[in-house]
Amino acid sequence: MNVKQIYMDADAMLEGHFKLSSGNHSQYYLQSAKVLEDPKTAKLLADALADVIRNDGIEIDTVCAPALGGLIAGFALATALDKRSIFAERVNGEMQIRRGFEIKKGEKVLICEDIITTGGSAMEAAKAIEALGGIVVGFAALANRGFCKRSGSALERKQNCSLPDNKPLFALADFDFEMYAPENCPLCADGSEAIKPGSRGN
Ligand code: ZN
């Protein structure tokens, strides 16, 4: 499966000068919502990701997605795996499990994002699950931005990956783009201004 082509076909791989949620800048931005607006594509990707996860043999009770980014991918993956689907959401900056969702002690939870960049939001969701007695068994995403180590990929983990190195990350592809701290961004140096997709009507 050519995940990059699927993103390009959906006009979901934007080229420009973008500010990512981590605060870093990039020439590319992946707009997964554009890919997932077609439920058939969402199902295709989630089924393929579920196969990767099933082949690993890992035990999962529940899929938990950090809102908003992971919601659709998480639900589609939980459907494909036939597991419970819940989400974590940010309240006053802190990721929490709300909506009456309960976590049993020892419940095995897979955290699912649309794209894993450094894994910051995924880790915040993982901490919220663990605070309630759940066990985070691994992480999943449609694609990995190339900072963390994807199960089965030769690409090495980089220093800014915040996911633990003793838990698997399942994803369908590595999208290995450069990312810059604002002070080192060559696009900023050229005089353009980074925009945050989603914040200006796009
Ligand atoms: Zn920049």
CATH architecture: 3-Layer(aba) Sandwich
Count of DSSP-assigned helices: 6
Q: What is the global morphology?
A: globular
At the fold tier of CATH, the topology name is: Rossmann fold
Strand content: 25-35%
Rg on CA atoms, Å? 16 Å
Number-wise, the strands total: 8
Ligands present: zinc ion
Query: Ends: how far apart?
Result: 27 Å
Q: Would you state the CATH class? A: Alpha Beta
- Average pLDDT score: 94
Question: How would you sum up this structure, described in words?
Answer:
With 202 residues, the protein is of the alpha/beta class. The protein has a single domain, classed as 3-Layer(aba) Sandwich (Rossmann fold). The protein is built from six helices and eight strands. The chain has helices spanning 3-9, 32-36, 39-56, 71-81, 120-131, 186-189, and strands spanning 13-19, 25-30, 62-66, 84-91, 94-96, 108-116, 135-144, 169-171. The strands form two sheets. It has a six-stranded mixed β-sheet with strand order 5-4-3-6-7-8, with helices on both faces. It has a two-stranded antiparallel sheet with strand order 1-2. α3 (39-56) packs across α4. Bound molecules: zinc ion (ZN). The site of zinc ion has 7 residues, from α6.
